[in-house]
C-alpha cells in the first residue's frame, strides 16, 4: 500500500480522495488551523490531521498541495526537507521568485522531485517539448462564468449585474494574472513555466454569462509549428472556480506513485 498526504482539504482534495486508487491510502491531511478541528472529526482515526509539517507522524510516499498559493508557500519547503516528493497545483506561487528559488533549492538539496501538475489544462508536455527548440508566442485565454470569477480581483473590474455578453476584463502577462487571480489563474503560470516564462506568456481573462463551463484556450507557435488547444471543463460542484480536470490531474499523480509505465 502506498500513502499520500494532502496539503489542504478543500473541493479539489475531496474529489481526489473520493477517487483514490485502491493501492493508495490518504495517511495525512495538512490542514489550516481554521479547519483542523472539524477535519479531525470528519477523518476519523485512520487519517492524521495536522497543521504543521513538524507534527508529521508517518512519512508518506508523496505529498500533493491543493491548499492555494499561500498554503504552498507555508508548507512546500518543509515537505521537501522531509525528503517527500511534492505535487503542486497552486503553481502561481512561482510568481514569487524568491520562493520559487528556495523551493527548487530544497528539492535539489534533498534529492526529491517537485511535480508541477498540468491541472485544469492539457498540452503542457507539448508546450514544454516545443520550448526546447524555441517558441515565438504563447497565449492563454481563460473564459469562465461570472460566478466563477466572483470573490476574486475581478470584482473590481466587472459589473456582474450588467454583464450581458462575454467580456474581456483582463489582459496582461501570466505573472500578473497568476498574482491577481490566485484561485483562478494558476494554469497561466503552469503554461508559462512550461513555455516562454511568466513575463512573455500573454493572458486574456473573460467573464461569459452564457457559460456554465470553464473554457481554457491555449495557442503556442514556434519552430515546431503551431499548437492550439481548447478545453471545455466542467467545474467542481463545490467550487465553480476549479475545473474538475485539475482534481483529476492530482489523481493521476496518485496513480503514478506505483506505476512502472508512466504516460
Ligand atoms: N493548477 C490548476 O489547474 C488549478 C489550481 N488550483 C489551485 O488549487 C487550490 C485548491 O483548489 P480548491 O480545492 O478548489 O480550493 P478550496 O478553496 O476549495 O480549498 C482550499 C483548501 O486549502 C485549505 N488551506 C488554505 N490555506 C491553507 C494552509 N496554509 N495550509 C493548509 N491548508 C490550507 C483551505 O482551508 P480553509 O477552508 O480552512 O481555508 C481549503 O480547505 C486553489 O486555491 C488554487 O490555488 C485550482 C484550480 C486549478
Ligand atoms: O480550474 C481552473 O479552471 C483553473 C484555475 O482555477 C486555476 O488555474 O487556478
Automatic annotation (TrEMBL):
Q: Which UniProt keywords apply?
A: NAD, NADP, Oxidoreductase, Pyridine nucleotide biosynthesis
EC number(s) from the headed UniProt entry: 1.4.1.21
One Pfam family named in its UniProt record: NAD_binding_3
The Gene Ontology terms for molecular function here are: aspartate dehydrogenase [NAD(P)+] activity
Q: Does the keyword NADP apply?
A: yes
Report domain Aspartate dehydrogenase positions: 164-250
Residue stretches making up the Aspartate/homoserine dehydrogenase NAD-binding domain: 23-116
The free-text function statement in the UniProt record for this protein reads: Specifically catalyzes the NAD or NADP-dependent dehydrogenation of L-aspartate to iminoaspartate.
Report the family membership.
Answer: Belongs to the L-aspartate dehydrogenase family.
**Descriptive protein name:** L-aspartate dehydrogenase
Origin organism is Psychrobacter saeujeotis
Q: Which gene encodes it?
A: nadX
